[in-house]
Amino acid sequence: MATSTLEQSAPAGDTFPINGTDYIEFYVGNAKQASYFYRSAFGFQLVGYRGPETGVRDRASYLLQQGKIRFVFTTAIRPDLSEDAERIATHVHEHGDGVRDIALWVDDARDAFEKAVERGAEPVQSPTVFHDDDGEIVQAAFKIYGETIHSLVERKNYRGLFMPGYVAVKQHYAPPGVGLKYVDHCVGNVELGKMNHWVEFYAHVMGFRNLLTFDDKTISTEYSSLMSKVMANGNDRIKFPINEPAKGKRKSQIDEYLDFYKGPGVQHMALATDDIIKTVTTLKDRGVEFLSVPTAYYDELQGRIGKIDEPVDELAKLGILIDRDPDGYLLQIFTKPVEDRPTVFYEIIQRKGAKSFGAGNFKALFEAIEREQGLRGNL
Fold first, then answer.
1. Which of 84, 235, 265, 372 has its Cβ near the most Cβ atoms within 10 Å?
2. What is the mean pLDDT of the chain?
């Protein structure tokens, strides 16, 4: 299947500077319960709220934070009251709980939006000023794959908690964090033949570069395969792997996602930690379920990877994977889907110098995912 590309020539560098991931917003069926799950299981702190009690009648949003990671969980309360609430409810009905917005922190939202649209981005929200007693935030947005968007958030003139409309929350129930620091990367799944379209989008519209490419020979098993390209901005704070399915004997994990999400969207987010053994141990103790690999994976690990700081027996006990590149090594593990639809899941990652994405683990990981697909009857 041919891929479509944008016609504009790619800029020599970033189209506009990006300081980091500002927040990730999920549209969910019950934001109160989702926020409770992420607090109880993942150790996020509930720090802000917007809803009927703050004058917003049609929806509710809960702001959770851990380290530099901000998650917003938004639900529609009265879809009949506004187009925004109707869109939220429709999104959840179609896709289940999922990521709507990967928001980017920029210095100048007006300039960034104008440049992105000039290069082919489809606008969702023109630059809009939101203000309260703590200053103002400028926010704009444009579309990416599926119904996902990038908001552009300018904060230089705001001193408040998060953004106007949110009030601070301090909860009596506040389980401690598990050591999550920041968003390492966000992975998108797109339809067969669309990967290169979105690679070109990030290159032409945002000036990103293709950091790594994995073909169906790199990421494959006997039954299924996928292709992936990693796009990154100039300072590498933003990394977006983009996956598409490849033809195989059976359905790949990407096919399964596309079937159940009913289209392209964010498959998983990789959250960084400085102590993956401690983080994963705590997550498991709190009920988070992870994919497992056969113990044979660890039999010749040090022969393949070389010397590492962590005890191999502890890594094997937890099911943590290890891979090395010229800059160092990384440790990673993947949760099972965090909801009933087999769509969104998480990667916990610790980088010990490595800049890659664990290519040496792809086969073991893919086989683990296929075992879960088989149990669900979706392979």
1. 265
2. 91
